[in-house]
Design brief:
The structure holds 2 protein chains of 2 kinds. Chain A is mostly helical. In chain A, 80% of the residues lie in helices and 0% in strands. Chain A is built from 14 helices and no strands. The chains are: A mainly alpha, B mainly alpha. Chains A and B meet through helix 1, helix 2, helix 5, helix 6 and helix 7 of A and helix 1, helix 3, helix 4, helix 5 and helix 6 of B.
Chain lengths: 278, 286
């Protein structure tokens, strides 16, 4: 019996090894990106597939300076956080009546949100550009934040409406007995209960806004306001393709989200697929 | 009832933002699409001329065809590869979590970065793919993938597929996890092979996940222009220029705002009708 069990274990082990190797091979462009980013120019040309023989961290220092990385991260961070705040506040506020009053008006608003969810952003790009230019919102943080918020609000309302509907009303009735009005009931009783959805929504918005490239490309002009993806796009696009610049810029652009992903991977994947299973 | 009508005041701020930055712009897009607006100064009405040139000129018809072909390639292969990975990972309990997360990592990256990395991988000058082909002795695979009109669209689609295969795989794995273990155990006891179990037992139970994955990848791929813009600029000779990229070009290089608006409306109609038909098909199927 003992050798039989062993051969089964060996088979299992071999199977797992093959699976892991296939998966790692599939994502090998990520390792390639990291490996190339640490090579000298001559090594990148001579031996593009091998591991770097020496770690040229100065590639990173050059790119961080040339691309104004700190500024770009600050811009992206400021815009992303602002969009999250706007979307969380306005989205949860709007969802509260929609979840509690289930009449015709609510159904119509929710249907409108669903249409908004399906509308690709380039349908609104042309007029937003003209409008922003005419009222002076072009090339401003406020304009970009407003455009992003409008794009993400339908999603927020959807998330919150679904969640609030599952919260029992008794808590709100208790608050009512304590003479709380709608506002106080919402902010002190309902809103704190929404934190799981708020976290999910914040992750969604963070990934989308951080990685987005259409809106900032069209709505920002001043290089000092460029978001990280525009900085990478301009930095690489304006130069001859040079691996010692391209790959460090690519790593620096992806790093913040990849680190976040390593920390929150379970939550992120579950949230992304939860919408899909319904 | 305590939830009186004044509660609707809570929706007002969100509705204002949506009205100003969403509904009003869409109505303006419709209005602009019937003009020859260049974004500056007065513009004249041109009736359906813009739509006519979108739907009759070879250039735009070709870009609609490129968008559809690009989307078709992505929907088929992204979901097929994702499904195969999911079926294998479902059987590899011990490494499932790790593999699922690893495959998902490219989804967290930006089109900008994925585009530049793959552009370099395809490069005929020391790009990874050509060097790999040369090292392994597959001389036929040494090509200028992005510079050849016959291969460029497949090369760009492959980068998109690489990016989102982990997303499809995660959706399918969520579907797998809802299959009851008793079904699987019974099949194993009956000596049903792994491949047969997948085809005859698991696949029918995954219908819901498959329809979701197909609809999401269709919407995601029809409207995309980022990878072609970065990797090929639409070339060679328009072989990778989808309609969405024509919209961006007419806006910011040609200043043809009227045309861009008409194309955006056509694009919107295509996206909505394709996803509506898919929805109908899958609902009917269930």
């Amino acid at each position: 019996m003992i050798p039989k069990i062993r051969s089964r274990d060996v088979r299992r082990g071999a199977f797992y090894t093959v699976v892991v190797v296939c998966v790692l091979a599939f994502v090998s462009p990520i390792f390639y990106m990291i490996s190339m980013s640490l090579k000298s120019q001559s090594e990148a040309a001579r031996d593009p597939l091998g591991l770097p023989s020496a770690l040229h961290f100065e590639n990173y220092i050059n790119v961080i300076e040339a691309m104004n990385y700190g500024r770009a991260v600050f811009n992206s961070g400021l815009i992303t956080v602002s969009v999250i705040v706007v979307v969380v506040l306005l989205g949860s506020l709007a969802a509260y009546p929609l979840a509690r009053r289930t009449g015709f008006v609510s159904r119509m608003i929710i249907m409108g949100m669903a249409l908004g969810l399906a509308t690709p952003n380039f349908v609104t790009i042309t007029p937003i550009y003209i409008m922003f230019r005419d009222i002076g919102l072009l090339d401003t943080y406020v304009g970009l934040i407003a455009a992003f918020s409008a794009l993400k609000l339908p999603l927020a309302v959807f998330f919150y409406t679904g969640f609030i509907a599952t919260i029992p009303r008794e808590l709100e009735e208790a608050a009512r007995l304590d003479n709380c009005g709608h506002w106080r009931t919402f902010f002190f009783v309902v809103f704190p209960l929404l934190s799981p959805v708020t976290a999910t929504l914040a992750l969604f918005v963070l990934v989308d806004v951080w990685n987005d490239f259409t809106y900032p490309l069209l709505l920002l002009i001043d290089p000092n306001k460029h978001t990280i993806m525009i900085a990478v796009y301009r930095f690489i696009g304006e130069r001859q393709i040079d691996p010692t610049l391209l790959f460090p810029a690519a790593v620096l652009g992806s790093l913040p989200l990849l680190v976040l992903f390593v920390i929150f991977q379970r939550r992120i994947i579950n949230n992304v697929t939860a919408g899909g299973v319904k | 009832m305590w939830y009186d009508k004044s509660l609707y005041l809570f929706t007002v701020p969100a509705l204002i933002v949506l009205a100003v930055f969403f509904v009003y712009p869409i109505s303006l897009t419709v209005a602009l699409s019937f003009t020859d607006s260049s974004g500056f100064g007065p513009s004249g009405s041109v009736g359906f001329d813009n739509y006519e040139s979108v739907l009759t000129s070879d250039r735009y018809l070709r870009s609609i065809w490129v968008a559809l072909k690009f989307s078709f390639l992505i929907v088929v292969f992204q979901n097929l590869i994702g499904l195969i990975f999911a079926a294998i990972l479902y059987r590899a309990t011990f490494v499932r979590g790790f593999c699922r997360a690893t495959l998902f990592a490219p989804t967290m990256m930006s089109f900008v970065i994925v585009g530049y990395i793959w552009q370099f991988i395809y490069s005929p000058f020391g790009g990874a793919l050509n060097v790999l082909a040369a090292t392994l002795g597959f001389d036929g695979f040494q090509q200028n993938y992005l510079g050849n009109p016959d291969t460029a669209i497949y090369a760009v689609a492959a980068a998109h597929i690489w990016m989102f295969t982990g997303y499809s795989c995660a959706i399918f794995l969520a579907g797998f996890s809802s299959i009851s273990e008793e079904v699987t155990e019974a099949a194993i006891l009956d000596g049903v092979s792994s491949v047969k179990r997948f085809i005859f037992i698991e696949l029918p139970l995954l219908k819901g996940s498959i329809s979701v994955a197909i609809i999401l990848s269709t919407i995601g791929s029809l409207k995309t222009f980022e990878l072609p813009l970065i990797m090929t600029g639409g070339g060679p000779d328009g072989a990778t220029r989808p309609l969405s990229m024509e919209i961006i070009n007419s806006l910011f290089t040609d200043y043809r705002f009227g045309m861009a608006s008409a194309m955006a409306i056509v694009m919107l109609i295509i996206v909505l009708s394709v996803s509506y038909m898919q929805q109908r098909y899958f609902d009917h199927d269930e």
